[in-house]
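We modelled the chain as a single entity of 367 amino acids. Its sequence is:
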Amino acid sequence: MSLRFLSITVAALVALSAVVWLARRAPAPASADPRVGQPLLAAELAGRAARVRLTDQGRTVDLARAGDGSWAVESYHGLPADLAKLGRFIADLEEAKVRRLATSRADRLERLEFKDAAISLADSAGAEIWRVTLGKNADGGGRFVRYDREEKGYLAAPTPWLDAESKNWADAMLLDLKAGDIAAVEIGFPDGTSPVVASRAAADAAWASPVAPEGRRLRPDRIDAALSGLLTLRFTDTTAADDPQAAEARKHSRVVKLTTFGGTAYTVTFARKPEEKRPKPAPTDAKPQDAAAAATDQPKEPETETIPAGPAFVAIASSDPAARINQLMARRAFQIGEWTYTGVPSSPDEFWEPAPAEAPATPPPAS
């Protein structure tokens, strides 16, 4: 028997032995814990939830569902909740999977750093139906979780980010209209100048103004540009309705009116205390000068200081008495971004352009 044939035979026997061993090897034992491999949040529990509470680092977010199906941020003045954000958060909890049981020993739970970061759901009666406490992030990805107050710690992934800032859960959209909805617009100005008025017969028709300065005509593109910043108004923060800053801002208001083809009118009032320059107060440690020195010194220009403009506010009123925005405005004063306030032209001159000169009349031909 040749050495080459013997080597081939030995290699074949080794390979055959490996195949037999793999075939006879017992399957890996399934996890004894029923939660492993399951969603972090079962869809059935999510469907029953009428309250959601998030806590982290001493902050708490409370969201509650009303009888009509709407959600409100109870921990932020009862303002309407951002349904898109809430829906994504619940979907992320349903998509997260329990990867493995990390520990079932009480003495090891402390290492997983379960503190006050938690998510809980309650039903319409207020009874808690689901709760997890979030621990530290795992080195290989995911985060350790603990159901209710069980003496077990699990690894789940991917887990959603826990936003415990109540304001961030409120729906910031105050006005949401489409450009094609608007049939008429009236744009007022901070200095009380006569407003620019424009209207159109259809969504694809050109803007026209019944009143134009002599020798001028309307620029429809400027109306479209102004509307682009008015139709979707969002707040950046809120204060009490009687906040002193809001009260001071209302003394410097301008009004924009939007009317839809359906006949609903929206009155949008922008308000902001403008920048102010005023003389600096005299220093208290100034030394009095004698009369002779005062007579020879040249008078000095008074020094001034600039007081920055205050925050910008917006108030919206709908002609529909049942509109949600009317009740919302009674609760809080709503701040908007400076770019939103300054985006509306502050001078009527921006809406007009010179009208073309009329061609001189042609004299009739001589007979």
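As a brief sanity check on the tokenised model: The chain has two domains: 43-169, 173-278+304-354. The longest strand covers residues 128-137.
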